[in-house]
Design goal:
Distance between the termini: 45 Å
Number of strands: 10
Bound molecules: pyridoxal-5'-phosphate
Structural class: alpha/beta
Strand order of the largest sheet: 1-2-10-7-8-9
Helix content: 40-55%
InterPro entries: Ectoine_EutB, Ser/Thr_Dehydratase, Ser/Thr_deHydtase_PyrdxlP-BS, TrpB-like_PALP, TrpB-like_PALP_sf
Radius of gyration: 18 Å
Family: Belongs to the serine/threonine dehydratase family.
GO molecular function: L-serine ammonia-lyase activity; pyridoxal phosphate binding; threonine deaminase activity
Order of helices and strands: HEHEHEHEHEHEHEHEHHEHHEH
Keywords: Lyase, Pyridoxal phosphate
GO biological process, one term: L-threonine catabolic process
Strand content: 5-15%
CATH architecture of the largest domain: 3-Layer(aba) Sandwich
Length: about 325
């Protein structure tokens, strides 16, 4: 179980490890949404995504371990590497042979070891498990962990401190650590607040699991919102029930709608974000998300997009 006390303790614990990120109004999206829209600029977080909050809290809570490990090459891997470095701990990020050189370099530039092992993500994950069982490492998963959820919850606290009358929060949704933490914090502070989760139409494991009533696997499909891909874990303990109980509405977007969100945020609001972070804007532009009884806050969850891919979308070539 994760409680509001855990979130408040996390905020205290990670105060010097993460940035308080800016929040700013969007005039163009406010017109589209029929009420005030705010952009929570978490892509301005150090390492470029909110995941630093959960990783920092989890690492700071550890006792005596040989180091930390995970098998993520994306925003969680970067966050864990950065948090471990700040606390002078060893980090080993396990990756498969398929992972491109630039991603390995990014992990190593954060002071972590990128251990290339196996031909698939699953095999990389086995190495992380081996480090845990044989070498005394702590395996920090990307979402289904109470300290990770509590850390992400600090983002919900921060939003309500910045916009106390926020009526709706639009939250990008994958494994659900972000939504679970943010919803827990926001509803503790304002029980009437509306929490809207947003995923892509194809390959959204949480959406399929909610529909089935239990965690299920989905086929992974390539998507512009690459940080929203991947499963929720068939043995999911925390985020599945929390998302099920705390989320008020789920919106699914097409690839075109996600691209429109990226484009709009770049051109109208001057923000460079990755696909996962553009789903709130995409949903407003598609007419699927409106401001209700008060301010609507869109979480721009990350900015780690290949610059060439971003340029293609903004310049309209693909
Ligand atoms: C991880 C991630 C998400 C989704 O977070 P979950 O906790 O897995 O739901 C959304 N946006 C970005 C940029 C991410 O890195």
């Amino acid at each position: 179980m994760v409680t509001m006390d855990d979130v408040a303790a996390a905020a205290e614990r990670i105060r010097d490890m993460v940035r308080e990120t800016p929040i700013k109004p969007s005039a163009s999206l406010s017109r589209q949404a029929g009420g005030p829209v705010w952009l929570k600029c978490e892509h301005k977080q150090e390492t470029g995504a909110f995941k630093l909050r959960g990783a920092s809290n989890a690492v700071a809570r550890l006792g005596d371990v040989a180091g930390v490990t995970t098998a993520s090459t994306g925003n969680h891997g970067r966050a864990l590497a950065h948090a471990a470095k700040q606390l002078k701990m060893r980090a080993v990020i396990c990756v498969s042979r398929l992972v491109p050189q630039n991603k390995l370099a990014a992990i190593e530039s954060l002071g972590a070891e990128a251990r290339v092992i196996g031909a698939s993500q699953d095999e990389a994950f086995e190495e992380a498990h081996r480090l845990k069982h044989d070498e005394g490492f702590a395996l920090i998963p990307p979402f289904d962990h109470p300290d990770v959820i509590a850390g992400q919850g600090t983002l919900g606290m921060e939003i309500l401190r910045q916009i106390p009358d926020a009526a709706t929060l639009a939250v990008p949704l994958s494994g659900g650590g972000l939504l679970a933490g943010v919803a827990l914090a926001a509803k503790s502070l304002n029980p009437g607040i509306r929490i809207v989760g947003i995923s892509m139409e194809k390959g959204a494991a949480m959406a399929a699991s909610l529909e089935a009533g239990h965690p299920v696997e989905v086929e992974e499909v390539e998507t512009l919102a690459d940080s929203l891909g991947g499963g929720i874990g068939l043995q999911n303990q925390l985020t599945f029930p929390m998302v099920r109980d705390l989320m008020d509405e789920l919106i699914l977007l097409t690839e075109e709608e996600i691209a429109a969100g990226i484009l709009h945020l770049a051109v109208e609001d001057g923000e460079t974000v990755e696909g996962a972070a553009a789903v709130g804007a995409g949903a407003v532009l598609a007419g699927k998300l409106h401001a209700g009884d008060g301010p609507l806050v869109l979480i721009l969850s990350g900015g780690n997009i290949d610059p060439a891919r971003h340029a293609e979308i903004v310049e309209g070539v693909s």
